[in-house]
């Protein structure tokens, strides 16, 4: 049993209670949360949380872990230009590079408050090995709750798509491999550490047939659907030219709306699309840093939320967000929303809600994750605000969202400490840094 005492608790419960109090964890569940001290519990490990803020663990709803070893390329390019530069590098990834990249990206996520990660992996070069198994092993070793989405691309350059033909797969092979991945890995248990989603990459790299059949497969298997949508104006123009409709109309025509679907980015949805997303409870993973890095635009988070669209946060792939830091996404989400839509568009508490409950909702885990309540899984972050940059900010949630990212006193995932005193307990970041550097060099050198 573990007891956190004297911390400022942001419960995110239905009443959104906040107080100075305690959180008690037994096994992988929270058993008590309340103001003041916990009753004396014999043999419990007591953590002094004074001056700290405890929040639910953050949920990262969109990421491409393999990109951790391909950061810092095409740094001043647009999405399509950036993709064209990176596809040949990505065509060289294999089991070992994906494993190292996943460990690096996941370690950074853990150190920035993230307890559950959805990864969207869509590059499967021929002969690259079992890439899904490599990242699943990495996630188990780092200790995070993992929702890998089996991505795919079947529209290469010879079919008018953007990716080179060497990184696209055959449609039947994709569907068979995705189905096999669900059978092998997907665990539907309430305390699951591993769930699979079905995730064709994006409309401009995937055929309509693959989108449609992927939706059928996911629903037959009872898993969720994910893809990129409405990320750039180029994509909107491409959809109009190729399909004569908006990105959401195109996705909807293929069965891609509903509470089991979440889209990455959703920057360029118009009023009609936002209404339709809300009516169908289709979710959006907002990735503010990546969107700004690529100059893609700013998602209309306030309008999406007002329309009843579930919205979570994502760091996106590290090749378009070198920081890969989830806590920084809260600040960027707030700043970009206010810069584009005024001071009332997003509060600090709205932002915390998107990072926790919002993300849990997108992944279908809101019954067990996303708030600090008795019976929920013990995924939480204890932020140390006893530091120079945070001293003198009276509201702990404002300190978390608006100031520099605070150090983590403790990160629990499924009741296990993954970070203590701002140090990972599971993997060695210095060793990882060396391995990541070597892999990055090998992948880019082979190009010349
Ligand atoms: Zn992405």
The overall pLDDT, averaged over residues, is 95
SSE-based structural type: alpha/beta
Counting DSSP H or I runs of 4 or more residues, the number of helices is: 14
Q: Tell me the CATH topology of the largest domain.
A: TIM Barrel
Shape: globular
Query: How far is the N terminus from the C terminus?
Result: 55 Å
Number of strands: 17
In total, the number of domains comes to 2
Overall description:
By secondary structure, the chain is an alpha/beta fold. It folds into two domains: 2-56 and 371-424, Urease, subunit C, domain 1; 58-362, Metal-dependent hydrolases (TIM Barrel), CATH 3.20.20. Helix content is 37%, strand content 21%. It has 14 helices and 17 strands. The protein is globular. The termini are far apart. The model has no long low-confidence stretch (mean pLDDT 95). The structure holds zinc ion. Residues 62, 64, 120, 228, 264, 316-317 line the site of zinc ion. Zinc ion binds next to loops.
């Amino acid at each position: 049993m573990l007891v956190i005492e004297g911390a400022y608790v942001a419960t995110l419960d239905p009443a959104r209670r906040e107080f100075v109090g305690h959180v008690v964890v037994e096994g992988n569940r929270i058993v008590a949360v309340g103001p003041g001290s916990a009753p004396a519990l014999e043999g419990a490990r007591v953590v002094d949380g004074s001056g700290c803020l405890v929040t639910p663990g953050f949920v990262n709803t969109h990421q491409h872990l393999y990109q951790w070893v391909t950061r810092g390329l095409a740094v001043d390019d647009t999405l399509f230009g950036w993709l064209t530069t990176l596809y040949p590098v990505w065509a060289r990834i294999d089991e070992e590079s994906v494993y190292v990249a996943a460990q690096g990206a996941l370690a950074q996520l853990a150190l920035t408050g993230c307890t559950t990660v959805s990864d969207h992996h869509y590059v499967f070069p021929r002969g690259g090995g079992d890439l899904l198994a490599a990242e699943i092993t990495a996630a188990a070793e780092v200790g995070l709750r993992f929702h890998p989405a089996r991505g795919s691309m079947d529209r290469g350059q010879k079919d008018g798509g953007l990716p080179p033909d060497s990184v696209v797969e055959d449609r039947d092979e994709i569907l068979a491999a995705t189905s096999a991945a669900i059978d092998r890995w997907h665990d539907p248990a309430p305390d699951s550490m591993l769930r699979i989603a079905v995730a064709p990459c994006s409309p401009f790299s995937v055929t309509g047939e693959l989108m449609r059949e992927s939706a059928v497969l996911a629903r037959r298997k009872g898993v969720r659907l994910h893809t990129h949508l409405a990320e750039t104006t180029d994509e909107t123009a491409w959809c109009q030219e190729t399909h004569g409709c908006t990105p959401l109309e195109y996705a909807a025509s293929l069965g891609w709306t509903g509470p089991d679907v979440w889209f990455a980015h959703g920057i360029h949805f118009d009023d009609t699309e936002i209404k339709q997303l809300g009516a169908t409870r289709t979710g959006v993973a907002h990735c503010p840093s990546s969107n700004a890095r690529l100059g893609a635009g700013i998602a209309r988070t306030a309008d999406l939320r007002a329309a009843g669209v579930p919205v979570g946060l994502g760091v996106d792939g590290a090749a378009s967000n070198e920081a890969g830091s989830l806590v920084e996404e809260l600040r960027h989400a707030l700043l970009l929303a206010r810069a584009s839509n005024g001071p009332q568009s997003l509060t600090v508490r709205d932002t915390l809600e998107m990072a926790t409950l919002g993300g849990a909702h997108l992944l279908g885990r809101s019954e067990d994750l996303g708030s600090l309540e008795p019976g929920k899984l013990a995924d939480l972050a204890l932020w140390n605000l006893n530091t120079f940059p945070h001293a003198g900010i009276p509201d702990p949630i404002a300190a978390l969202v608006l100031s520099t990212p605070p150090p983590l006193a403790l990160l629990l995932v499924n009741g296990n400490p993954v970070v203590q005193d701002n140090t990972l307990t599971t993997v060695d970041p210095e060793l990882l840094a060396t391995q990541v550097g070597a892999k990055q060099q090998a992948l880019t050198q082979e190009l010349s």
